[in-house]
UniProtKB/TrEMBL annotation:
Highest taxon of the lineage: Bacteria
Cofactor: Mg(2+)
NCBIfam families documented for this protein: MTHFS_bact
Family under the similarity heading: Belongs to the 5-formyltetrahydrofolate cyclo-ligase family.
Species this chain originates from: Streptomyces coerulescens
PANTHER family per the UniProt record, alphabetical: 5-FORMYLTETRAHYDROFOLATE CYCLO-LIGASE (PTHR23407:SF1), ATPASE INHIBITOR/5-FORMYLTETRAHYDROFOLATE CYCLO-LIGASE (PTHR23407)
Name of the protein in question: 5-formyltetrahydrofolate cyclo-ligase
Membrane spanning residue stretches: none
Keyword annotations from UniProtKB, A to Z: ATP-binding, Ligase, Magnesium, Metal-binding, Nucleotide-binding
Amino acid sequence: MSHTGRPAEPDKRTLRREFLTVRDRLTADDVRSSATALAGRALELPELARAGTVAAYVSVGSEPGTLALLDALRARGVRVLLPALLPDNDLDWGAYTGQDCLERVRHGGKMALFEPGGERLGPDAVTGADVVLLPGLAVDARGMRLGRGGGSYDRVLARLERAAAHPALVVLLYDSEVVPRVPEEPHDRPVHAVVTPSGVRRFI
């Protein structure tokens, strides 16, 4: 119990572990079929239909799959930016030109990431995006996102705020990861929408 007499909220670390455990039980077929459904739902978003530039990411492991969505956006003529992790956990950006441009990069002891080869555009490139697709582990009824805890996307959101850039912020998740509430900190910002394999939910 907390000092107020109410049950204490689980902390972010505990929640992350719980959501990752559920993801780890997914089969390759689960991930693949979810990715197809997720791409279909996301492509119906008016924000993506209007977008000239989308900042996205390449899913890894049991994350909701993004490659089908990235290729569909490119086929529409959208400029897709992908992140490259910097040593301080900030993100640089490069253009996605197709799956053959991706390089598998391992950062220390962390999970290997797929990053764009070719020219780096600088951390500020994200401020020119019309839509930013965010990874996460959960989102709550207010649109507050639970990330993995590395802080990379907190920096992205702070950079957007400093630049007075206002892209649509969209998190991609599984259906079970839309929950009543996640813990928040003062720097946390709500997203505009969540896309899951079964549909879209808007917050702001």
